[in-house]
Design goal:
The chain is an alpha/beta fold. The chain contains 5 helices and 6 strands, in the order H-E-H-E-H-E-H-E-E-H-E.
């Protein structure tokens, strides 16, 4: 969906505006459409701003905390100057933050990290994880109300909940 593309665009903007020059990405799984759309939005937004992400700066984290932990280690081994990182889910980003901490790499002074999903766990990382929020509770509540309206003979309507940036401590 277009909101996943928009999430990628937001992440690119945050990293570029924060001054990142060596940008990487931890993707989830190729067979999940939202993962591909987030990555596409990120890559195309970087591209529009004159930045070409290298394939060596992209690693899979399989949408797990352990995957994010391992992926950031692999990325830094190939790209030691990495200073900006978009992680396509907060769970992977939490693992990446753990690994960066163990490696003694300060976030965000050495590398900015932005996740995606606004998982409640992101508020308890050190530093607290900047992320992109899809507002699933409001979307669910509103979808329920649309269904009730339809059952009661109301018109067919659609709602869009654009993703929004939640700035915490892991980005500049």
């Amino acid at each position: 969906p277009s909101h996943d593309i928009a999430a990628g665009e937001i992440a690119a903007k945050v990293l570029l505006e924060g001054g990142a020059k060596n940008i990487g990405m931890i993707v989830g799984s190729d067979d999940i459409a939202s993962s591909a759309d987030r990555a596409d939005g990120f890559i195309s937004s970087l591209d529009k701003n004159g930045y070409k992400i290298q394939s060596s700066a992209i690693e899979s984290g399989a949408f797990t905390r352990k995957g994010g932990y391992e992926a950031v280690g692999k990325l830094l081994a190939r790209n030691p100057k990495l200073d900006g990182l978009f992680v396509l889910s907060d769970m992977m980003a939490i693992g990446a933050l753990e690994k960066l901490s163990r490696m003694g790499i300060e976030v965000p002074s050495k590398i900015s990290v932005i996740g995606c999903d606004n998982s409640p766990a992101g508020e308890f990382t050190n530093p607290k994880l900047s992320t992109i929020d899809y507002n699933p509770f409001e979307a669910g509540r509103s979808s329920g109300q649309l269904l009730i309206d339809l059952i009661n003979g109301g018109p067919v309507r659609s709602l869009v909940f654009p993703p929004k940036l939640v700035v915490r401590e892991s980005t500049k």
